[in-house]
């Protein structure tokens, strides 16, 4: 059994989240959900005992075992991020701890290994707590949802499909209540104005003590109505999905050749052939998705395409790499994002905000950010780089659901070309783009 009792967790001098009493029992599969930066990974560190800087109490009948997020896979490593993740997950599942914590376990996994993981976890019989933005995984496994929102961790005893429907209904109701409050505020304000005007007329027509009394009563009633009108007008508008738009769209003709590769092999660092004789022509507004298993050579293929594209004078490449090697660690977030961009600072803030980077974080040095935060800053820098060809290597990793939706809409509206590698099922299915797969050392159209 695992118990959480009246927790308050502060960060940077402010409340990150609070909880009431929560309990997890053997057989519970709990999905921890919430936007980027609300404290999901922090919660897991508290459950393992690595983070003890909070008030309240956490007790567990057995020491929780954590498989953390995999970041910073360097080019010197022979294994891909997915291969490292698979190895860590296998070791954890073979160990079979009574309490297992997984932080974004499918972020680096190909589709086949996502299915493998789901099947293995269905056979797990302990307490399983999963932090994830992967709705496919959550729908397949969880019977409890712990949601972090508005600085509060709340428990919902339901599967993820029911939870999502519940949240959507709450959002619809909140929008309806907001519109009704605005309408009522205007109605009360108008009625108050009429009472004031009526009082003034009474005073003009009957300039006596009785007229003064009637005017005072009408004015008093108007103040009551105005007070209620102001209260309703101050109700905050519920957050809506953010749409990301560039001020300066890519300037490229649909027939302009941005990269043209004919019969070039893709080789590993030790000169091993990964993909034979790649042939691919990308024009101005082409959109491609490349699939393939972990470790098969997708990232290496993208690196080759970047080199080839950079040889075209009229091609400007925006390359998002899993190595995050384009970031300058000693520069601030906002300076990193705007370094190669013609966009305004407000556009940069909008994009960063959609990715969960807000407030004081704009002026932090990149070196002080977490791995997931650096991933999102690097992605925003790429999107704002003024590129007419975006080459994106797993950009969906570590994005929350609202950020994924914002990125999806942005890419659909982007007027340049895109080459995308992603294992995120819902994301790639929503993009009606041409698809290729690396299979048997060949790049093949699907």
From TrEMBL:
<dbReference type="Pfam" id="PF00005">
    <property type="entry name" value="ABC_tran"/>
</dbReference>
<feature type="domain" description="ABC transporter">
    <location>
        <begin position="2"/>
        <end position="446"/>
    </location>
</feature>
<dbReference type="InterPro" id="IPR050611">
    <property type="entry name" value="ABCF"/>
</dbReference>
<protein>
    <submittedName>
        <fullName>ABC-F family ATP-binding cassette domain-containing protein</fullName>
    </submittedName>
</protein>
<dbReference type="InterPro" id="IPR027417">
    <property type="entry name" value="P-loop_NTPase"/>
</dbReference>
<keyword id="KW-0067">ATP-binding</keyword>
<dbReference type="GO" id="GO:0005524">
    <property type="term" value="F:ATP binding"/>
</dbReference>
<keyword id="KW-0677">Repeat</keyword>
<dbReference type="InterPro" id="IPR003593">
    <property type="entry name" value="AAA+_ATPase"/>
</dbReference>
<dbReference type="InterPro" id="IPR017871">
    <property type="entry name" value="ABC_transporter-like_CS"/>
</dbReference>
<dbReference type="GO" id="GO:0016887">
    <property type="term" value="F:ATP hydrolysis activity"/>
</dbReference>
<keyword id="KW-0547">Nucleotide-binding</keyword>
<dbReference type="InterPro" id="IPR003439">
    <property type="entry name" value="ABC_transporter-like_ATP-bd"/>
</dbReference>
């Amino acid at each position: 059994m695992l118990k959480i009792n009246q927790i308050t967790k502060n960060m940077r001098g402010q409340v990150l989240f609070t909880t009431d009493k929560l309990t997890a029992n053997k057989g519970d599969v709990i999905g921890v959900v919430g936007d980027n930066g609300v404290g999901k990974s922090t919660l897991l560190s508290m459950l393992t005992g690595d983070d003890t800087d909070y008030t309240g109490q956490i007790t567990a009948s057995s020491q929780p075992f954590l498989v953390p997020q995999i970041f910073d896979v360097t080019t010197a490593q022979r294994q891909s991020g997915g291969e490292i993740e698979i190895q860590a997950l296998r070791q954890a599942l073979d160990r079979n701890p009574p309490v297992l914590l997984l932080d974004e376990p499918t972020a680096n996994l190909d589709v086949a290994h996502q299915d493998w993981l789901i099947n293995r976890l269905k056979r797990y019989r302990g307490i399983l707590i999963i932090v994830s933005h992967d709705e496919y995984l959550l729908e397949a496994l969880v019977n409890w949802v712990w949601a972090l929102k508005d600085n509060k961790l709340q428990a919902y005893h339901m599967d993820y499909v029911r939870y999502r429907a519940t949240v959507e209904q709450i959002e619809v109701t909140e929008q309806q209540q907001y519109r009704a409050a605005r309408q009522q505020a205007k109605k009360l304000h108008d009625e108050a104005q009429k009472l004031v005007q009526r009082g003034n007329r009474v005073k003009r027509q009957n300039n006596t003590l009785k007229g003064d009394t009637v005017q005072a009563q009408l004015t008093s009633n108007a103040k009551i109505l105005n007070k209620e009108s102001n209260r309703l007008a101050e109700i905050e508008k519920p957050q809506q999905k953010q749409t990301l738009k560039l001020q300066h769209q890519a300037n490229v003709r649909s027939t302009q050749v941005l990269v043209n590769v004919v019969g070039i092999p893709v080789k590993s660092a030790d000169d091993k052939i990964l993909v034979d004789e790649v042939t691919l022509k990308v024009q101005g507004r082409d959109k491609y998705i490349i699939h393939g298993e972990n470790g098969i050579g997708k990232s290496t293929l993208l690196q080759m395409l970047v080199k080839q594209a950079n040889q075209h004078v009229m091609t400007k490449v925006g390359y998002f790499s899993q190595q995050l090697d384009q970031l300058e660690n000693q520069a601030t977030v906002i300076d990193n994002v705007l370094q190669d961009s013609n966009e305004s600072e407000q556009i940069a803030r909008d994009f960063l905000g959609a990715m969960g980077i807000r407030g004081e974080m704009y002026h932090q040095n990149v070196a002080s950010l977490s791995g997931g935060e650096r991933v999102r800053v690097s992605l925003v820098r790429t999107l704002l780089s003024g590129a007419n060809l975006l080459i994106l290597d797993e950009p969906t990793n570590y994005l929350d659901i609202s950020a994924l939706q914002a990125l999806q809409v942005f890419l659909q509206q982007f007027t340049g070309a895109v080459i995308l590698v992603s294992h995120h099922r819902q994301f790639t299915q929503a993009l009606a783009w041409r698809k290729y797969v690396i299979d048997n050392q060949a790049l093949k159209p699907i």
